[in-house]
Description:
By secondary structure, the chain is an alpha+beta fold. It has 2 domains: about 1-90; about 100-205, N Utilization Substance Protein A, Chain:P, domain 4, CATH 3.30.1480. It is built from 7 helices and 10 strands. The chain has helices at about 15-25, 65-80, 95-120, 125-135, 165-170, 190-200, 205, and strands at about 1-5, 30-35, 35-40, 45-50, 55-60, 85, 90, 145, 150-155, 180-185. The strands form 2 sheets. Strands 2-3-4-5-1-6-7 form a 7-stranded antiparallel β-sheet, with helices on one face. Strand 2 (about 30-35) and strand 3 form a beta hairpin. The radius of gyration is 20 Å and the shape is globular.
Amino acid sequence: xxxxxxxxxxxxxxxxxxxxxxxxxxxxxxxxxxxxxxxxxxxxxxxxxxxxxxxxxxxxxxxxxxxxxxxxxxxxxxxxxxxxxxxxxxxxxxxxxxxxxxxxxxxxxxxxxxxxxxxxxxxxxxxxxxxxxxxxxxxxxxxxxxxxxxxxxxxxxxxxxxxxxxxxxxxxxxxxxxxxxxxxxxxxxxxxxxxxxxxxxxxxxxxx
Length: 208
């Protein structure tokens, strides 16, 4: 999963050489990519510089050390004298960003574990157990794992009183029709809880 983070500030921006020295002081290895990019070696982060702003591009994967990643981004914001803004979301604080990353990281871990379960010949049993666990978490909503979206989704009927309207449905499919049932990704920390269940119910998959 890719994230874009901006560091808006009214003050003067340090140049790429200044941030390179700062990263060295932090003990964070990096490579210089051209005149306007730094790529970190130990974290999946690329910093891009232009005269108006500095952007951080994060490619999350299942084994990223999240506390180290989040701390670096916020320490960089302190160095820049700026807020941390997640593109598409807005300003975020340190725990808010950590939980957002953690939920998405656990979503990736669930997808990887289910892919590995093919070799263990227990994929259907795991999916059945996961569906039951999600039913409990969803408190009566139709939550399930969508193998194509690789995400926990809620099945929602277009146009239904407790479903989703046509305008909202258009974000999830082309030309939605009333009565159509769509898988809508569930927001929140549900993947953290689902991964907790999966890693304890099938510890061998969690270790793979």
